[in-house]
Amino acid sequence: MLNANALQVSYGKSRVINGVSLEVGKSDKVCLMGRNGVGKTTLLKSLIGLLAPKEGAITWEGKEITRTRANERSRMGIAYVPQGREIIPMLTVKENLELGAMAHHPKETARLMEEMLEYFPALKEHLPRKGGVLSGGQQQQLAIGRALMSKPKVLFLDEPSEGIQPNVVAEIARTLNRVHEEKSLSVFIVEQNLDFAFKIAERFYVMEKGQIVNSGNTREVSTDTIKKYLTI
Ligand SMILES: Nc1ncnc2c1ncn2[C@@H]1O[C@H](COP(=O)(O)OP(=O)(O)OP(=O)(O)O)[C@@H](O)[C@H]1O
Q1: CATH superfamily of 2-230
Q2: What is the domain partition of the chain in residue ranges?
Q3: CA of 95 to the centre of ligand 1 (A)
Q4: Handedness of CA 46, 177, 181, 102 (dihedral sign)
Q5: According to the model, what pLDDT value does residue 84 have?
Q6: What is the pTM of this model?
Q7: Ligand 1 centroid to 36 CA: how many Å?
Q8: More confident residue, 84 or 67
Q9: Whose C-alpha lies nearest to ligand 1, atom 7?
Q10: How far apart, in Å, do the first and last CA atoms of the chain sit?
């Protein structure tokens, strides 16, 4: 479904992604692991259209989208939950969720909201509250809910477990697996929390210094092998 081929991404003269190729299939569940600063967020931003690669190509359902803007990729079904969540603190929870449907599916907002609250019932009682007053875990659920309101085919999440209580992290894993199951949603998670990532992902990629250095099936690799890449 989404293919990246030999991507190179730089900030000015500093090259951060150096020849990355990867694939996210239909109804796939993938995690991308690696230490701080190896380029995971940079790679994600280039896949969703926030950073333009210097070299290489990205295709979506067979069509080249390397220079397609993020907004257009969102219309095609590519959604993104950024690191730090980026919910709008002064808008209510309901308004934050509505934003997800506004760009491409405004007429379906009510139906999508109902569906979303099925997936995240904990948000129901907070709908009239300002997003900024929610706990970190609730804000993460809100950010995922908002992304799902855009009816994505693939959801990219940047470190969704960061700074969140273990019970909420487990609930987020269950919900993502449920949406995957019921909607054939593809999920691509950037993570450093191995347990969480492996509760969801069927495949993994590991990055070091801007390159993919290991990949495979999560059931066929020992967690110790992956941990070696994550510890300093
Ligand atoms: N806007 C920017 N301008 C210049 N350099 C940047 C910028 N954003 C990131 N970098 C650099 O690019 C490298 C990769 O950063 P990136 O955030 O992609 O890594 P990461 O693996 O996602 O790390 P983390 O786990 O800390 O989020 C780092 O050396 C970082 O300092």
Answers
A1: P-loop containing nucleotide triphosphate hydrolases (3.40.50.300)
A2: 2-230
A3: 31
A4: negative
A5: 84
A6: 0.95
A7: 8
A8: 67
A9: 11
A10: 34
Q: Which two tokens stand for residue 88?
A: 């709008």
Give 39 Cα–ligand 1 centroid separation in angstroms.
6
Ligand 1, CB cutoff 6 Å, lining residues = 11, 16, 34, 36-42
* 112 CA distance to ligand 1 middle (Å): 34
* Tokens, residue 19: 């020849």
pLDDT per residue as tens digits for the range 133-178? 999 999 999 999 999 999 999 999 999 999 899 999 999 999 999 9
**Cα(25)–Cα(186) distance, rounded to whole angstroms?**
7
Residue 22 corresponds to which tokens in the numbers above?
């990867």
The answer to whether the beta carbons of residues 156 and 168 sit under 8 Å apart is no
- What is the pLDDT averaged over residues 80-108? 92
CB distance 16 to 9 below 8 Å: yes
Ligand 1 pocket test: pick from 40, 85, 191 the residue with the most ligand atoms within 8 Å of its Cβ: 40
Reported ipTM = 0.95
Question: What is the number of residues in the chain?
Answer: 232
Cα 41 to ligand 1 centroid, rounded to whole Å = 7
DSSP string for 134-192: S-HHHHHHHHHHHHHTT--SEEEEESTTTT--HHHHHHHHHHHHHHHHHH--EEEEEES
Those residues whose C-beta lies under 8 Å from the C-beta of residue 133, and which sit 6 or more positions away, are 89
Does residue 189 have a pLDDT over 90?
A: yes
pLDDT of residue 232 exceeding 90, the answer is no
Q: What is the pLDDT of residue 10?
A: 96
